[in-house]
Amino acid sequence: MTVRTPLYYVSGNLREMDSAMMDEIKSLAIYEYSLNPSVALSVSGSGGNLTSINDTRLQAGAASTSVTAFPNEATTAEPSTVTVSYQRITKTNASVSVTSDTGKTFPLFYTSGGNLRAMDATDFLDTFIFPSIDTLVLGTTTTSQGGTYFISTSTTVAGSTLVSATPIFLDTRADTSLYTADEIGETLDQPITINSYYLHKVDGSSVSLSQVPVYADVNNNIKQFSQAEIASLLSEYIRNAAASSTGGYQITYTIGTAGTGNIRGTGMANTILNGSGNYQTRFVNADDYRAQEFPDGTPVTTDTYYLRINKI
Fold it and tell me: What sign for the dihedral angle of Cα 242, 25, 139, 157?
């Protein structure tokens, strides 16, 4: 990996940028990425292309009836598990073209021999783009990760934009308050939502460069980039690398209980009641004795799912 130190013009001289100036350019690359992420996540009711994740809950066993006496507990159906799969996130990689390297496309730097030379595309990637992607895929969700995604139980999170009001996952459990002996045979599945989980995109923060690098035009005249010109180059190259880099800097997302990469936002807990059944009876009349087992127990977490960001 070759990092070059670009030059800028000040008081009639060409000087090498310091690390703070170079960091500003990287921050500008991140901001440009935040405006139009090339690896985008969207939410729909179903049919996403990230891995499905499951919510499980107990439901009541089927009611038993007898014309002579209450069906005993050994013969009544046990509570069973309801499983609902969620696959609501779709990842889309954009196709991004970049300005070709003409030999004069990128900023100038001094060689070890003191000569002026233009960065090539590899230099530009190594100096500005790849370090910016390293920052984008961290586990934090500050403006330095603008344009990337995380999970929250809230629909409103400061510094981010809600992707969709449709939750990507619901943790539900049996609502034991809805099951009563007087209603046997009860509706089997009576859930309550414990938590809803939503996808957010981190907002970027605009950057004003204190110095802009210089380049050589087709006549070998030294000129300054405008901020808009360098921003355009940064946008093209960071979006292209994030979506399609073959050098280990393509941004990707996964969802599941385990995996590689940095966790983004809160974990999504799948909880369920751990009881073996609450046996209840109902006398309707001399020819109608009923029994049913309702969900019971205390909540336990069976799985916790995470959204992760990584580079590949």
Answer: negative
In a domain? residue 203: yes
**What domain count does the chain have?**
1
Radius of gyration in angstroms for the set of CA atoms belonging to the chain, rounded to a whole number: 29
Interacting residues of 7 by C-beta distance below 8 A, sequence separation 6+: 14, 15, 16, 17, 107, 108, 109, 110, 116, 213, 214
The bridge status of strand 80-86 relative to strand 53-59 is antiparallel
Dihedral, CA atoms, 33, 38, 39, 40, nearest 10 degrees? 90
How many CB atoms sit inside 10 A of residue 28's CB?
Answer: 24
Q: Which SS3 state, helix, strand or coil, does residue 174 take?
A: strand
Q: What is the pTM of this model?
A: 0.95
Residue 1 lies in a domain: no
H-helix or E-strand spanning residue 25 = helix 19-35
Task: Summarize pLDDT for 286-308 with one digit per residue, the tens.
Answer: 999 999 999 999 999 999 999 99
